[in-house]
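Q: Structure for this?
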Amino acid sequence: MVTPQAPLNAGPDILGRRRFLSSAVLGTTATVITATTIGSVAPEAVADPKLDVEAGAPDPNFVEGRITGIAGGLLIVTGSDRTINQIHLTKATSVWKLRPTTSDAAKVGDGLYARGVRMPDGTLAADAIWLNIVNLQVHITSIGRSVMHMDHRGDRIVGHVVSGTTAAVYNSTPAVSDLSLLQVGRHAQVIGAWRPDTNEVDLATVYAAA
Amino acid sequence: MIEWLASTQQAVVGGVLVWASAFKLVHRNASAAARRSVLARITGKEHAVGAYRAVGVVEALIGLLLLAPPVLVVEAYAAAALSSCMLGYLAYGKVKAPDAGCGCLGDKEAPITARGFVRAGLLVALSLLAVAGSGWWPTERPLATIGLVVVELAVFAALSPELDHRWLFPLRRWRVRMSHPLAGTEVVVPLESTVQQLVKSTVYQSVVTQLSSDLLDHWDEGEWRLLAYAARTPSGPATAVFAVPRLAYRPDDVKMAMVPAEQEALV
């Protein structure tokens, strides 16, 4: 039984793919195939990822900026230094926007980090993109129902708690959904998804001492 | 009545000015606050502390004159002028150095907000009201006078972001301790905790160099949570799918299948 974890984008294709992959790893059906269910693959078998970037030079396989246009599977991204990049998304590209999601979540105006492979035509074939991701060191100034107000170097930030998604990590122990140990006045680190052009973020993970 | 109100304001305005000057002149963090304040942008860092102390001296002078008899109208005018300069200073800071604090009443760094303007505006208004006062400390209604002074000083404290840590945060902490607003959230196993467990597993560590993407997709299947990543293997692109125990911490039980992309295309 497949639980629809991401019903927003779980079309019949995705559910079929999940069923197939589930059976590949859990072996629930006999139809699987030559998938290598292995415990170990020698890392030496894979060539080291080439780090041929000179110190101080921009990494050609990384792009940051904001999406200024979307045209047929191609994202047009304007970097903070005004360089314009074109980014290809494929079925093998992971897309993060508060949670793992699909490429149709990318909207004009979103902030973006992308890692991938630079193609000969100058476009970036993305392996992974993160939309609106922020990582903030904050002080918790107040806690309300489903919101947390924070101070980030004098800027006020409103953090929205997203039920079922927001997690807390206390004292580096495994993440839990219980947020009731967060305290006003304490320091916290917050990973979240910025709501573009506001001072609001949806909270993904809050790291705090308890 | 107006006479009584006006005479009381001498004490309030004087009290606030002395409070502000005391911080600037004797607090051990005053020089650090000076260098962080808007004043440092006007005078330059090297003169900031001197200018800050000078402002403190002027505030102390006017404040003490207001508090002490005799009552001279010029004292109230001087306080009004000083508070108006304060308003101008805040406006300058808001425009030119929005990230710097005003350094007015405490060493806690707080950027200039509407509260600062209301506080300075209130000081101007009360100084002008004090102009109408003639008596030093009103002798009729002594209790009402003390009450009014206390209330007005409390309003100044409430308008001071520098003092929030003294009363506002403890109040909020107390309220959260009484009943935590976020205590009722749905109890689920967060995805983050499953990913943390996956990362600890030897299976994951043995193939991590082949994974090209971040988490592609995830779903629950009974006691398992499945996590899919794109991978680049020596034999071509593939999908790495991991099954991680969802309700227990057993990283050794993590299973993995590497499904070549061409097989997936058949689905």
